[in-house]
Amino acid sequence: xxxxxxxxxxxxxxGIAVRQVIPAxxxxxTGTVTAVASRSPVKARQTAAEFGVxxxxxxxxxxxxDPDIDAVYIPLPNHLHREWTIRAAQAGKHVLCEKPIALNxxxxxxxxxxxxxxxxxxxxxxxxxxxxxxxxxxxAVKAGEIGEIRTLHGAFSFNNAKDLDNIRYQSEMGGGxxxxxxxxxxxxxxxxxxxxxxxxTAHAMFSTLHDGVDMSAxxxxxxxxxxxxxxxxxxxxxxxxxxxxxxxxxxxxxxxxYVGKPETLGATILVHDECRELAVPTVDPxxxxxxxxxxxxxxxxxxxxxxxxxxxxxRVIDACLESARTHTRVSLV
Length: 333
Hints:
- This is Gfo/Idh/MocA family oxidoreductase.
- Belongs to the Gfo/Idh/MocA family.
- It holds the Pfam family GFO_IDH_MocA.
- InterPro entries: Gfo/Idh/MocA-like_OxRdtase_N (IPR000683), Gfo/Idh/MocA_domain (IPR050984), GFO_IDH_MocA-like_dom (IPR055170), NAD(P)-bd_dom_sf (IPR036291).
- Keywords: Oxidoreductase.
- The chain is built from 9 helices and 15 strands.
- The protein is an alpha/beta fold.
- It has 2 domains: 120 residues, Rossmann fold, CATH 3.40.50; 176 residues, Dihydrodipicolinate Reductase, domain 2 (2-Layer Sandwich).
- The strands form 2 sheets. It has a 9-stranded mixed beta sheet. Strands 3-2-1-4-5-6 form a 6-stranded parallel beta sheet, sandwiched between helices.
- Helix 5 packs antiparallel against helix 9 and helix 7 crosses helix 9.
- The longest helix has 19 residues.
- The protein is globular.
């Protein structure tokens, strides 16, 4: 690294990179964007010019081989996450990879193992969990502020079904609603409960108009002591973006639970009909994500989320997809 800044390369000019992550790196305290790459030379040059980035590459290989890059951000379609994470790691680059980290837990474990063997850091870009409200919510849950936890319900959906060329609707690219948005409530429940589910059941609508991917799904994750997560997700559904944690004495409502403007990222605690807002600072979770990763590199300290956590999350996603396809309850123990 050059001085106290992580020099980032962005592999692919996807919307999430252009709208959120490149601006977040530029606003961070720890990073700078050194290069962007696209298989479209025009898009690479346009993106670099838009953000004042010095280097624009017309291939992913060139950015991975660049000695001036310390870490790469990978917003590529899901089926390319494994390949380019491994290639980046073998070139000595640290990796921040978009969610879901892989197509299955086997791929995820391979990515973790290769990064570890190459001596580089790997993180999955679940930016929502870097916002301080989630740590505050977990503290409230652990402190028993709403009593004993009974259930959680998460919903994340949108309707973009008319865009038939969208990569989310391409089976071989890892399309589908569980991969794209269902992964969020699954991850949030595991984070807040600090345990793994013992079984899952999922039901999905697979659309022949959209290459057979799951366009919407509902699911049940069973945890110990009768605690559960019910979730709904969809890409052909009316929009939703929320999480509710229900206890024996109260509940916590989380609006804009997974994405939203920094000023909207709060939560409400209701106990015995008394309602209060959870006091949290206004923070951009994308910037928080970049700075957590950056500080782990600069100060050589542990990452907030171990990459093995991503493997465990993929095991649950694997089970949800298996359940939806086979119409069976899938045990995880």
